[in-house]
Amino acid sequence: MPGLACSSAPPTPHAARGRDFTMSFASARPLRPDRPPDRRARLYRFGALFGAGFRRWSTYRQAALAGLFTNVVFGVMIYSLLRALADDGRRPGGYDTTQLATYVWVGQGILSVVHVWSWNELADRVRSGDVTADLLRPIDPFEAFLAADLGRAAYAVLARMVVPILAGGLMFTLYIPHRLHTVPLFVLSLTLGTVLSFALRYLVNLGAFWLLDARGLSAVWLLASGVFAGTFFPLRFLPEWAQAVLWFGTPFPGLFQIPLDVLVERPGPAQQIGSVVLQLVWVAILIPLVSRVQRAATDRLVIQGG
C-alpha cells in the first residue's frame, strides 16, 4: 500500500489499480476505552508526555545557547530604547525605570517559555497523513500535544529564562516585588499564558484540516501575537480604549503582557488578581473551542490510499 496522503476534498479514484481503497475518517475521533481511564492513569500518561517534551527540547543545547545570546543582545537594545522614554522622570505607560528593565529582561526570558512563535507540528502531520495515528491513540491529541508543550516550557524556564534575567540584573537595576503574593501569582500567570499560547497555536494548526497548508494562518498568528501580546512594546503605551479592546476582546494580553504586569506590580493588588482571573476565563473559553473545532476537523478528514 503506497504512502498515505491527507485531504479534505473527495478522493480521486485510482484508475491504474481499478479500485479505490478510500477510508473516510468522518468518525475518526480520538478513541475512547470502554471504561474511562482512572485519574491516576490519565495523570501518568500526561506526566510521561510532559517528560518526553522536556527531554526532546533538552537535546537542542546549541540552539539554546544561540537563543540566549540573542535574548541578551535584544534585551540591551530594547531596554535602551525604552529607557530613553523614561528620561527626566517620565513614566511611560505608568512604568518607572526599574519596572521597564524588569519588563524587558524577564520578557526576554519568558519569550521561549510562552513560545508565541509559529508551531507547525500538527499541521505537518495533517498534510502527511500521520495525524491518523494521533487520532487512533487512546488519548486526545490536544491533551497529548499540550503535555509535550508544557514539558518544552519547563525546559525553557531552566535553559532560556534564568540567564537573561541574571544578565539584566547585572547590567541594570531590576524591580523587586513588594507584595508577598506577586511571585506565586506570576508563576500561575505564566503557566496560564503558556496554555493560552498553545491553545491558540493548536487552533491555527487545525486550519490545516481545511486548507492543507496552514503557513498563511501561521504568518497571521506570528504577526498578531507579536503586536497584540506585548512582545514588541508594552500594551500600556496604547490609548486606554485600545487597551480595553485588547484586554477584554482578545486573549493576546494574557500571553505576555499580563504575566509581566503581575510581576512588576503595575496594577494594584485587586487588578493583579483580576488579570489572572481574566486569563482563567480565556482558558475556559479556548479549551472547549479547541475541542469543538477539532471535532469538526476530524469530520472532514479523508485518508486516501490504494
TrEMBL record:
Keyword Transmembrane helix: yes
Full protein name: ABC transporter permease
Short name of one Pfam family: ABC2_membrane_6
Keyword Cytoplasm part of the UniProt annotation: no
Keywords tagged on the record: Membrane, Transmembrane, Transmembrane helix
Entry-linked InterPro entries: ABC-2_transporter-like
Transmembrane segments: 63-82, 153-176, 183-204, 216-238, 270-290
